[in-house]
Design brief:
Layout lengths: L14 E6 L2 H15 L1 E4 L9 E4 L2 E6 L23 H12 L11 H6 L3 E5 L7 E5 L3 H12 L7 E3 L14 E9 L2 E8 L2 E2 L3 H20 L2 E9 L2 E4 L3 H8 L9 H8 L3
Parallel strand pairs: 1-4, 9-11, 10-12
Antiparallel strand pairs: 2-3, 3-12, 4-11, 5-6, 7-8, 8-9
Helix pairs in contact: 1-6, 2-5, 4-5
Length: about 270
């Protein structure tokens, strides 16, 4: 038997695992970790094209008590750093998650996909015609019904946001899947984002998803559980790098502007 070949450190992705107490702690720890472990690249397609991002290769964030308040990040008293989110914004965002309402110019909303997903099923016929069959399903209510009527021993209670045709959109959904599990008497969420703005999107998205989980747990008749979130595109845009360093009290030379880097080298 021969030893398995090993990847050289520079040749492999470097996933990061973060274990946090609540959502505030998860945001702070993740911002701190990305300053140390994120890689810098220039966006060639997508939001903020031609600008730079700092991004994890892959990130797992396990939040043990996401329902423990506060569910949005708190800035230190007297801080000049702009808050990344607010409860007022999260409450407005909830309508985006829980209803199918869509504004002019929007290709989709998460709520449209979760509560009234418009699917098109192609069915062939003898004369070669293709018929489009609109199928409407409220995935939130279906998951609640599965657990209430058929018990907790299933891996099928998953809510999907992404659709195959999204690959053609200029801005496809970032949130792709909300998987669920009832274990130890609690409802848990396992979430995947293809791309995720760490500064403002991460706290707002998770706070809203936590409120959704609390509602679903109440309807099912179980406790509120944990969140495990994963993403291969969790990132900080360049305009937030200075805020991130201020909040974490870290100085990361590679993220500073050339002027600030030069100032560090000037003699006293």
């Amino acid at each position: 038997m021969t030893d398995n070949p090993k990847c050289e450190p520079e040749d492999k992705l470097k996933p990061v695992f973060i274990e946090a107490f609540n959502l505030d702690d998860a945001w702070f720890q993740t911002v701190s970790q990305i300053l140390d472990h994120g890689h810098i690249y220039t966006i060639t397609r997508g939001s903020f094209k031609d600008q730079r991002r700092l991004e994890f290769d892959y990130a797992f964030v396990h939040i043990c008590q996401p329902g423990h308040r506060p569910i949005i990040p708190l800035m230190p008293e007297g801080s000049s750093i702009p808050a990344p989110s607010s409860m007022e914004y999260v409450e407005q965002y909830m309508s985006y998650l829980l209803t199918g309402a869509k504004q002019p110019g929007e290709d989709y909303t998460y709520g449209e996909r979760l509560t009234a997903q418009p699917l098109k099923e192609q069915t062939g016929s003898l004369n070669g015609l293709i018929k489009e069959m609109p199928l409407q399903v409220n995935q939130i209510e279906e998951v609640i019904k599965i657990y209430k009527t058929q018990g907790f021993g299933t891996n099928q209670a998953v809510m999907e946001i992404g659709m195959p045709s999204d690959i053609k959109l200029a801005d496809p959904p970032c949130l792709r899947i909300i998987d669920t599990r009832v274990r130890y008497g609690k409802l848990h969420f396992m979430i995947y984002f293809r791309s995720w703005d760490l500064w403002a999107g991460f706290p707002s998205n998770l706070a809203a998803l936590q409120l959704l989980k609390e509602y679903m747990a109440s309807e099912i008749g179980v406790g509120d559980g944990e969140i495990i979130a994963a993403s291969k595109g969790l990132h900080l845009y360049e305009y937030t790098w200075e805020y991130a360093m201020q909040r974490t009290k870290k100085t990361v030379p590679r993220l500073q502007t050339p002027a600030k880097q030069a100032s560090k080298l000037e003699p006293l």
